[in-house]
Sequence to fold (294 residues):
Amino acid sequence: GLAMRSHIGSTHRRRTSLAASFLLMGTVVTIRVVGDDGAHRMRDSIDRAIAAMRSVEELCSRFDEDSALRELCRHPGEWMAVPPVLFHALKVAREVASMTNGVFDPTVGPRLEQLGFNRHYLTGEEVDSAIPIRDDVSFRDIALEDDGCRVRLEKPLGLDLGAVAKGLAVDLAAHELSGWEGYAIDAGGDVYVAGVDPHGGVWHVGVENPEDGRALLARLRITDAAVCTSETISGEALKIRANTTWWTRQRESPHRDSSAARLLAPRPCWLTWLPRPPFCSAPIGPLDSSRKWD
Fold:
């Protein structure tokens, strides 16, 4: 996990800040805004950011029978016009799948159901898409047409955009908060910070040791950057991206099928899929560092 705090030792003047926490996508999200324009305007901005994040969940959830994602999956072989948010999430997911040569694949919905990831975090209701597990489907069966945000699933398949959708939700929230002197979004271990903290310094993010939540693997002093983490508890890996350079530290775990990862990059939408083993069919190899992250 990630522990976010402001720079207590800063000698800068203290700014006004306001924070709010809420439940979203199965985790607690905390948004903090820093500035001098009053609590009322801060609250309005936070409310808009929350609304933007909720809209992503409503459109992209495989746990909601009425979501646009579930509706799309009910019409394989047909061109379907989908909301722009869902279209963008699918586009990112397909690009990431291409970058990893299919190691990450958003068509794993039925397999996740089989593994027990099949209950809505709010209602506890069990999800059954009735879509069979098939070995002959992949991200290549998702056809996208920019004009009109149209999508066609070439075969019956179940999509899961959880990781990508979460990053997109943080991106949209950040857009709503962009006018402030500083802000931080902590989405259950996936963090984006910008500008200054309440003391006028950079933000501090502590990377927790997955085997000992009281200890830290690293302390990051960052701004205008995203840090993402997995939730596994055995093994550890730290990957930090600064500009175009990757620094990697990894220790083998006795449980080779489970690892935790921590990554740093300019935007969360391109990171949240990386640390999550359930979405990956094999270990992720080196990524193409010449790719632009935007």
